[in-house]
Amino acid sequence: MLTPTLLSCLLATKIDLRHLRSVAVEDAASFAESEGLFFIETSALDATNVEKAFQTVLAEIYRIISKKPLSSQSGSGYSSNIREGESIQVSASNSGSLTSQCCSS
Prior knowledge:
Layout: E1 9-12, H1 25-35, E2 38-41, H2 50-67
Parallel strand pairs: 1-2
Pfam families: Ras
GO molecular function, one term: GTPase activity
């Protein structure tokens, strides 16, 4: 079984060469399910399900990330002392006085 932070997919290649199969589709799908993997049959020859495989993995990553509360994203490089439900007070700044030195001559 995989950890919650690891997303994996079992790809069966060469779907166009069914007569050369070593593993039955049902066996591969059953194995994938028992291991918590996505299972997709693909073909590099005619690109069958190749894009679907990437889209499935990306959609699942998005689903997992969007479910996480902001507070659980520690270790992301951002630190905050703001707790959930607190308001943030932003003071007016004098942004007009800031100038960039990189492009001035």
